[in-house]
């Protein structure tokens, strides 16, 4: 279970003496499971006492453990003595991202002479209707596979499928940047039903047919050699999805996620950094921005900003959605840039393999310039290992301007302009 004892430290400052109580749901069962990249059994609602000085730290800790803060209340001096909570709701937080929204304490509950302040800067879309968990694991939606297409061309590495499901018989709605869960059939090694795995949605909210009847995924089959036996091991859920045939049923949950949503601003600058199947949400973004049928279906959203995609892959045949991406770039050269990092074919300036972080370093000054604009959003999706190299490249260019990159990145996160979904 989550250990709340670390949240009970004290501070000597006047503000630090204030204490809050977080109501948290969905925490993973223990800290070791924090390293897992798929959902596991989660706990119920618990209450964690947090001093003012550790509020942001505990938010991040809870988010890392898959928790959701559903309510925050200030613990008054009197109430801390008798064990009851002060009747004052401070803020509601967004799901699993450790950022508070702009909910404020009720005016009648403020202490005399004390101004009410939001805990963090309000983000875009806090009032927007974002569909979440319409279908849950105990009652999933039963969809059907419509198509299952191989995307790795001849000479490429591994197998990666674009899979489309019919959802017309249910009420599954979603937005670009969200995920759905897939529950594979069968039982696990402990004799229990297989748990769901989350996959980023690769289609727009209207589906590939722009008819609101489908949802699509980009799924690479997990395969590796067992370190002891040398036998090939295949991922349970990814193999299930990649093996689906048209007409096959599939159990779907969700949608989930608010971290990777697009801003509504049609003039925004959108910087995207992807490796492998991390392209999935960015395909949804770009289709919404540039596909003719999508633009016709969204008269209130005509993208006229800049979208810049950095895409890291192993070989040219592994460039997912290559033809469609380059077709969009040809049609909108002033609005869409594509930059590939093909590790097994290209060399970086040091003579090593070209990875996505090397491309970021090459373009760091231009990226830094774009990041100075208030309507620039940066999204990272794919392998977690790329984050360190990206930070290193941007740290160097920020230092030239006398800016601490870590602090600047933290400010962008707080403003809702830095979005990360890695594994």
Automatic annotation (TrEMBL):
Residues 91-131 are annotated as: Disordered. PROSITE patterns: CPCD_LIKE, FAD_FR. Residues 91-106 have a biased composition (Polar residues). Keywords: Antenna complex, FAD, Flavoprotein, Membrane, NADP, Oxidoreductase, Phycobilisome, Thylakoid. Signal peptide: none annotated. Residues 138-262 form the FAD-binding FR-type domain. Its EC number is 1.18.1.2. SMART domains: CpcD. It is a peripheral membrane protein. Its main location: membrane. It is found in: Cellular thylakoid membrane. InterPro entries: CpcD-like_dom (IPR008213), FAD-bd_FR_type (IPR017927), Flavoprot_Pyr_Nucl_cyt_Rdtase (IPR001709), FNR (IPR015701), FNR_nucleotide-bd (IPR039261), FNR_plant_Cyanobacteria (IPR035442), OxRdtase_FAD/NAD-bd (IPR001433), Riboflavin_synthase-like_b-brl (IPR017938). Pfam families: CpcD, NAD_binding_1. CDD domains: CYPOR_like_FNR. It catalyses: 2 reduced [2Fe-2S]-[ferredoxin] + NADP(+) + H(+) = 2 oxidized [2Fe-2S]-[ferredoxin] + NADPH. Its cofactor is FAD. Residues 108-130 have a biased composition (Basic and acidic residues). Residues 17-75 form the CpcD-like domain. Belongs to the ferredoxin--NADP reductase type 1 family. This is Ferredoxin--NADP reductase. It comes from Funiculus sociatus GB2-A5.
